[in-house]
Amino acid sequence: MINSSMAEIVFQTIDRDREYLKKWLPFVQHTSKVEDTQAFIDSITRSSNKSDLIFTIWYNEEFAGLIGFKDTDWVNRKTELGYWLAEKMQGKGIITACVEKLVRFAFQKQKMNRIQIKVAEENLQSEKIPQKLGFVYEGTERQGEHHNTGYVNLKIYSKLKHEIAD
Prior knowledge:
Helix 1 (7-16) packs across helix 3. By secondary structure, the chain is of the alpha+beta class. It is 30% helix and 34% strand. This is N-acetyltransferase domain-containing protein.
């Protein structure tokens, strides 16, 4: 799991790949110094509600990105997965493998019933991940996220617990 000692490396990666990441990740425009990343990490690790777990991704001992749960609803046993990967780590199957592991974790350990992934309509690379892993396309959340260029539509994919093999 992410912790405060990782703020510098996470920020350096965001800063290095700023142009690449900002197209799909609204938080990049608000992350201008390491303290912004530290504040994000602190908001997760110091919260009394530990439901939104965020994990660092490492590939060949190098920081690659983040993945985690957001907007977890324990009453209804549902959550959303979000992720991002450094530009040079793209195309290696890293996120697909990580999503697959977290889906199993959420269904088996956290007893979730539903997991969703929202993908910006034009983000074809990211959209391949839920498609490859058997998530079902449910529809489009119109103007669901504000990016630096304006609002974008989000394609919603979901997977239900009974749809996976134990």
